[in-house]
Automatic annotation (TrEMBL):
Belongs to the sodium:neurotransmitter symporter (SNF) (TC 2.A.22) family. GO terms for cellular component: membrane. GO terms for molecular function: symporter activity. InterPro entries: Na/ntran_symport, SNS_sf, YocR/YhdH-like. It is a multi-pass membrane protein. This is Transporter. The chain crosses the membrane at residues 48-69, 90-114, 134-161, 173-195, 215-235, 256-277, 306-329, 349-373, 393-410, 431-452. Pfam families: SNF. CDD domains: SLC6sbd_Tyt1-Like. Keywords: Membrane, Symport, Transmembrane, Transmembrane helix, Transport. SUPFAM superfamilies: SNF-like.
Length: 456
């Protein structure tokens, strides 16, 4: 345990473990389900190019900023901000609230995915291809959906309980390569479906007439969520990182990894949905849960003998992606409690688990016993509300505060010096401009748009 920093704090066994863990946190439901839908909605190639540009400018800059704060201070979000002055601690507190809100509902969706993977084997592909009855009766059944949520949670908790090196690193080493192999296999397979190539063309060819401010804002919001930014995760992960690892190179790799998986997810889902619905616009209209939990099972069911296996592998793949993200969220909660309250890792884990289970059960009842609570208007659920508050409200605020904090209070130089400990930082100038000016403006735009949409 010579590489441990101080006391009982965890650390990665090396740079690659860090990159893999950050990539595992990034790659999740956002890539597998939200990205393909947005790509379909915003004209395929045009969205892809915009997203690519945003990831490698804005996204990677913020990843670098968060990782460097974590590594410099050796603390998770609250402690890291407090390190620079007590009055900045609130930024860390706000960031830390986000994983606590996300993880319970993330595990609910993880439970849906688990249920589907099981059902392909137990009930066969036809059971899920019934126009949405299977899905709605499952989520409105509070007992069944809670059980699958708990199964999913248990998988994540067991891995986190085994610690950073023994649990998280080992799990990522198996789950991430498996995920990539399955994603490539399914993408190749769906591209061989009759008519799929038209769908692939729709996905890949830029349709410039679809370029719009909305597209950019959609891509920005997606990028935040997908890269797990503005919620203290990358600060925590950076705090476990050794000084000799190159931060710029690491964050570029994380960006590539996340983008690559999103791209593959689009390649498997958009053409398949296109086959089922005949046009890109139809795919775009079936956003949200229905694309993955209703439309895709219908596409799979038409595949004949291979349907069971394709459906199972697909949901297993999504399960792995969701699981690694849930692990990173849980780990962040544990480390926040551990650093914030000074409890042991074990005690912090127990508190985290109790909280997640209780919150998960409550949010899940929003689909059944508590379905009369519709916080965002007719038909909305507690899960929608948790998602909205965390992603559309708190995260942009945290991102804004973080950029202003680094750009104008502690000054970019503090971070640049940290980055330069391990490697040259050629883009330091451009990065400063990004953090001081470009990022704050873009974030305000996302925030205002999200609020306007929810009110309008
Ligand atoms: N980035 C994950 C995804 O794309 C979601 C996530 C958000 C994971 C926050 C961890 C923390 O699904």
């Amino acid at each position: 345990m010579a590489s441990m920093k101080t006391g009982s704090r965890s650390s990665w066994s090396g740079k690659w473990a860090f990159i893999l863990a950050a990539a595992a946190s990034a790659v999740g439901l956002g890539n597998m389900w939200r990205f393909p839908y947005l790509a379909a909605k915003y004209g395929g190639g045009t969205f892809l190019i915009t997203y690519l540009v945003l990831v490698f400018t804005f996204g990677v800059s913020l990843l670098l900023l968060e990782t460097a704060i974590g590594r410099k201070t050796g603390l998770s979000a609250i402690g890291a901000f407090r390190h620079f002055g007590k009055k900045f601690m609130f930024i860390g507190v706000l960031a830390s609230v986000v994983p606590f809100i996300i993880v319970p509902y993330y595990c609910i969706i993880g439970g849906w995915v688990t249920k589907y993977a099981f059902a392909y084997i137990a009930a066969g592909p036809a059971a899920m291809a019934d126009g949405g009855t299977f899905f709605s009766s499952f989520i409105t059944d509070g007992v069944d959906s809670s059980i699958f949520m708990l199964i999913f949670m248990a998988a994540a908790f067991i891995i986190v309980a085994r610690g950073v090196k023994g649990g998280i690193e080992k799990a990522n080493l198996i789950l991430m390569p498996a995920l990539i192999v399955m994603a490539i296999a399914i993408a190749i397979f769906t591209l061989t479906l009759p008519g799929a190539l038209d769908g692939a063309a729709y996905y890949l060819k830029p349709d410039l007439s679809k370029f719009s401010p909305e597209l950019v804002i959609g891509a920005l919001g997606q990028m935040f969520y997908s890269l797990s930014l503005a919620m203290g995760i990358m600060i925590t992960y950076g705090s476990y990182l050794e000084k000799k690892a190159s931060l710029t190179q690491s964050v570029t790799r994380i960006g590539c990894f996340d983008l690559g998986v999103s791209f593959l997810a689009g390649l498997m889902i958009v053409p398949a949905a296109f086959v089922a619905m005949g046009s890109g616009d139809a795919v775009a209209q079936n956003s949200g849960p229905s694309l993955m939990f209703i439309i895709l099972p219908e596409v799979f069911a038409d595949m004949g003998q291979v349907a069971t296996i394709v459906g199972f592998v697909f949901f297993l793949l999504v399960f792995f992606a969701a699981l690694t993200s849930a692990i990173s969220l849980t780990e962040t909660c544990v480390s926040i409690i551990q650093d914030g309250a000074g409890f042991s890792r074990r005690k912090s884990l127990v508190i985290t688990v109790v909280f997640i289970v209780v919150a998960g059960l409550i949010i899940n009842s929003g689909y059944n016993v508590l379905s009369f609570i519709q916080p965002l208007g007719e038909g909305s659920s507690l899960l929608d509300f948790a998602d909205f508050i965390s992603n559309s409200v708190i995260m942009p605020i945290v991102a804004l505060l973080t950029c202003v904090f680094v750009g104008w209070i502690i000054k970019p130089k503090t971070i640049i010096d940290e980055v330069r400990i391990s490697a040259p930082f050629k883009a330091a100038k451009a990065w400063s401009v990004m953090v001081k000016y470009v990022a704050p403006v873009l974030v305000v735009v996302i925030l205002v748009t999200a609020l306007a949409q929810s009110l309008g």
